[in-house]
Amino acid sequence: MKIYLAGPDVFLPDAVEVGRRKAAICAAHGLTGLYPLDNAIDLTVPDASRQIFCGNEAMMEAADAIIANLTPFRGAGADPGTVYELGYMAGRGKFCLAYSNDGAVYADRLSRSMDVRSEDGRLVDPQGLTVEDFGLPDNLMMIHALELHGCPLVTPATMPVDIWHDLAAFEACVRMAAARLIAT
Amino acid sequence: MKIYLAGPDVFLPDAVEVGRRKAAICAAHGLTGLYPLDNAIDLTVPDASRQIFCGNEAMMEAADAIIANLTPFRGAGADPGTVYELGYMAGRGKFCLAYSNDGAVYADRLSRSMDVRSEDGRLVDPQGLTVEDFGLPDNLMMIHALELHGCPLVTPATMPVDIWHDLAAFEACVRMAAARLIAT
């Protein structure tokens, strides 16, 4: 069974090594991890970004499931590129799993970086845009997609010191994927 | 032909009115706009967020196409909830369109809000995470998904004064959707 390994992990300085560790964890549970950087793309060609897209899409087609890293990326929410892939896999009817190494409620996390206040019964940010206030760790579309198209978001009981390299929550997803995909 | 109207517009103080304006533009071009807030959800019930998800998913199933507002939201990139929906619609094989009222290159936009520097041939943010540097306005997954599953991202020649209420780029998407969907 093949698992597409989505996440902003590809942006880490040691992105290739993180992919190797994730694939090894999959292998230990009888699964095959497909990591975007396994596609050999020549980054110097003019259409490199399009080739990356096509490589990722082909990997998603080949996979039975996705494990997405939804740890907040450059702000209070998940990496949009990763979220696109989660949506795509849900749309393709594949089994959806994800984790975030920051399990805080979205509104609480946001209020660490900007002024979030109550106004006319809504929680709003400094631009006056509503802040989702359902007690969820991120936008409800991702959270409920996971519940209804796979397994609920996995978060650690306490935030790991190194949110980009701690793979305990990832391994919990792999275990759930193995239990579900190998059994069926 | 039905178009799902995705975007952080639902978070605006005048979210309902913006939806009405978008639906009116669709109607003027012979299309039916489906706006998330058209679903009547009781926000006081415990599973309100799940009901919103299910309502949105049902609307997406009913739609032939999506027009997603990818204008940067609380940071340098698009709203993850909207991006999830774009991915889902691409996965369902629906026709994908989107616009952003900020057409700047992602790396340039990011450098307005944080220190972006070159390091070992990579562009990196203050956390040392790679900054996508393909000259695109947002993450390559969304940009190329639009090219390959619908129409290229629409951006205005100059950023409108009111990025949340200017609907010229939206209307350009509606025109393209009408040309494509009504013709076929």
TrEMBL record, chains A, B:
Keyword entries, A-Z: Transferase
UniProt entry tagged with the keyword Aminoacyl-tRNA synthetase: no
Coiled-coil residue windows: none
GO biological process: deoxyribonucleoside monophosphate catabolic process
SUPFAM superfamilies the UniProt entry points to: N-(deoxy)ribosyltransferase-like (SSF52309)
GO molecular function: 5-hydroxymethyl-dUMP N-hydrolase activity; transferase activity
Protein's UniProt keywords contain Transferase: yes
Membrane spanning stretches: none
InterPro entries: 2'-dNMP_N-hydrolase (IPR051239), Nucleoside_deoxyribTrfase (IPR007710)
UniProt protein name: Nucleoside 2-deoxyribosyltransferase
